[in-house]
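Board notes (copied after class):
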Amino acid sequence: MVRKISSDKYVIAGIITFLIFALGVTLGLVFEDYRYNVLEDVNDEQEIKYLSLQLQYLFINSEGDSNCPILATTLKETVTDLSDSLSEVISYEEEKKVTDKKKISIQRRYALDNIRYWLLATQSKKRCDLDIVPILYFYTQGCSSCPNQGTVLTYFKKVFGEKVLVFPINLELREKEPMVEIIIKRFNVTKYPTIVIDEQKYEGVVQQDELQEVICKSLTNAPECS
């Protein structure tokens, strides 16, 4: 009888352990799905914001420049939201193991968002004479010097605020997203990091002093440059 009770205890303990493990796995999957559902909601919101900006730009082209200040404000706010959303995606992917399919899908979406917002920003700068500096930033995750360039760009985003708009493009997506390959060929990007400002390409890490000179040359009214 003693052996039977002891055996039953082991069986019960094993069942409880399995149930706890299964619950943990299930909660992990539910949490992952929840996080990606949140990211999909963010993507949907970004889509609406982009459509709004695109219509504003088209309206300005047809009606005149009186609404340029509204476009400028909306553009800067939307790009800031995009940057914050991208940071959340990168942080989540570093913390959790996610499926390659979902990971690539999210990365492609944000690459496309960055490219189209960069296009709209450069067009709006010309059309509305906006005092902004759109910067394309090409990098790879395996690039040892790219974090240095990222630090310099982050510094100038803090110094110049909404006047400096940085659009990071992960070169590792070129085989997954055709638009990334197209823009790489457009600027003949062969090294990384590479940044593009006002159609001018700068290869390798652009140090703080040089980049400040380039940014200030692109701005028309920047007290930070005096």
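Comment from the instructor: The chain has two domains: 1-129, 131-221. Residues 1-5, 18-31 have pLDDT under 50 and may be disordered.
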